[in-house]
Amino acid sequence: MTPTIHAKIDNYLAADLHSDLSDDERRDLHAHLAECSACRQLHQENKLMHATLENILTSEKADSTFEQRMLAGFRSHVPKQPGRARRFLVDLMRSRAIQTAAVTALLLVLIGIGRMLTFERSYSFLGNGEELMAPVELEKGRLPRLPKADEMFARLNGVELPRANASPAQSEAAAGLKPVDTYRQDDITRLGVRSSTDVIQRLPAATGSTVPNEGAAEVERTAVAGSNAPTAEEVGPTPTQTPGPAVVNRKLIRNATVDLEVAKFDEAVQKITTFANEDHGYVATTSSEKQENGKLKGEIVVKVIPENLDRFLQKLRSLGELKGQTLGTEDITKNYFDTDSRLKNARIMEQRLVDMLKTKTGKVADLLAVEKELGRVREEIEKMQGDLKFWDSQVQFSTVTISLVEKDIDEAAKFLLKERAQLALYTPAVEKIYNDIKALASAKVQITNAQLDRDNSGRISAQINLLIAPEESDAAIARIKAMARVENFKVETQRVAQGGEGMSENARTKRDKVELKVTLSRDEDEQAYQQTSLRIRTSAVDEKAKQLRGLAEKQGGRVLNLSFSRDADGREFASASLRVPMKNYSTVMQSLGALGKIQDVSVARSERNGVEIDEANAPADLSIQVYSGGYIATDEGGIFATLRQTIRQGAETLLWSLRMLGIALAFLVPWVIAIFVVRWIVKRIAQARRKS
Amino acid sequence: MMDANEREKYRAAIHGDRDAFEMIIRTHSREMFAIAYGILQNREEAEDAVQDALVKAWKSRWRVRDPEKFPAWLCMIARYRARDVFRKRRTIPLQELVGHAPSCPTSSSSDTTVLERQLHSALAALPELHRSALTLRYFEELDYQSIEKLLGLTNGALRGILGRALASIRKQLKPALASLEQ
Q: How many CB pairs lie under 8 A apart between chains A and B?
């Protein structure tokens, strides 16, 4: 205890003077003071100083009015505020939730402003503010009760009604007109579908009026009765005396074509006939055609009365999948009535000519001329009558042309399996194999092309194309393959659909003749599957090189070349390249080890993608260098070489690290300079400010 | 721990209760003065610093989250304020300062005034934290724990600070004290 007190005597003494020591501590301190005279001395000094400090500092102490001055100062500096609201605000600001909410609100406002800006921009393309309002007004226009909108609808009706007049159904709708509805119609007219099928489809009665025999008069009446009242009330400025009859007597030809895909052709035809009968029509023509794959397609022309056309078309949809539909209307009213009036005139003309002939006055030449003219007029009349009749028939009945196609019409009838094979063979005796393959020729194995090439360097190659009957093909190919080493074999099979295209489950597949193309080449030309190069160090180079030959032949390979040299220093050097089958490669490598010390073995293998390779028999090339020991060895090994190498590597590493240091400096120096410059500037600014 | 009453007072002051704040001025401005004086060693300047610090504290009172730390926070503001004043003063020639501090008692040349001058120069040589601790102790006679709290010191650190401060003064005052003893 005592030593710690002695070490920290200053702290203890101060705390003692300030009566901050615990009882134990004080007891220990006094025990120590009793022992230690140096500390006792310090204690005395401290006590004295403490008293002085107390004396002096108490005089410096804030006087009794200090608080009052502070309060007064504070009051004069901070005037009294209207408390509550401000306090409340301060309270609010202090709350985390409010702070979060404020930040969120700020963000939202920013987003809102951003949105407003972009919104404005998107509309600002329209031009000034008035146009900006345009879409809003359009929106309003859809509300039925607004006066402006009503006005607009009245105008729209004016445009629409002359055509709408014809139909009682439509004018009924017009009587209790719904604004939205008309609005939509206006859209349609604006789109330019004025006399389109859509409008006409909604006026079945109008087209019905063109049916001459039964409905004409009745329809005309209803049309006039129905149309007058609403037009007078609603249209206002538009002409009320719309010529009803002209509209009623319209001659419209309505034709439709429908493309359907059905399951069964005959069933569809039967159903169409039924539908036609139901709708007061008839089947005009039917034609069908059978495809090679047994599927039927055909065309049916049905005539139905125009009122039932839409219903009929609707029914047709139930037959199968609708591939396409067109509905066309041709207005022949003008032509029809023109022809009609011309016909009447021509009839009068005829009558007059006939009268002329009856009176028989004048010259014969004149009579002949009259007769001729009468013939021309009659011909014209007949033509016009024919036209009218044709038109009547066209108007009376709508023509629906239905193209029917059975499902999977383009299904293939059968498939032909075509096979093309390529076979590349390597053999030492090209000519013999060439003749062997040619000898295979028979009725089922035909040779289409055979060719044997021998160039002036004695290299020989051959090519034979064969056409083999499908049942013989496998056997023949196998036989040819067995004749020599297969370098590669490729078969390409093609399934050709006949009589259609696409998939078919039931179609037959027939195998076609196989085309086989055989290429024969000498095995020296073959690229080695694996190439190995190595060096052998031995004392007796010549002898070992000769041993190589024997070794290669024992392993079913051969020596491709062998050379031997001796230089002036007495170093011997032999290089040999061997070719052995892959299966014997490892044995050869093992026996090479017996010849001498093997060095620098490197193996390269060329993988040929997508080619079938007989790996066991593939050739492996060995390129071997045999050399005698001597100077070469001293270059490569020994303690000095190692030492030299180590020093060289050390120097290289040192240079490299120097370079790295340079790079690092290049990175750092500009930054360091920049930092110093900034610090200097800041210092100067601070100094300048302090001076001012 | 602080009693609930006091705590409530601080809370009210933070929330803008002026009366509570004035109450705190009454109870704590002396401590602030002690600290400011410790740094500045000049009564007028220290008073101004405390005044400024109080206004500043009122304005930024909402920054205090924990009411218990309010007195310490006040002292901190006073400390910073005094330090600012001290820094600004630094450019004033030293002689003026030396002449200024013992200005009033220069006329009499008694032992106490010599001692007082020496004491002041000894105090000036101390770090400001040590001075503040001393003034808090000798002006307000606060116990160690309270001083530690006000100055934001860790538990027990003050003993070392005051010990060293006293030792340092003692060394400088040794001759003067010796003469006083005789």
A: 128
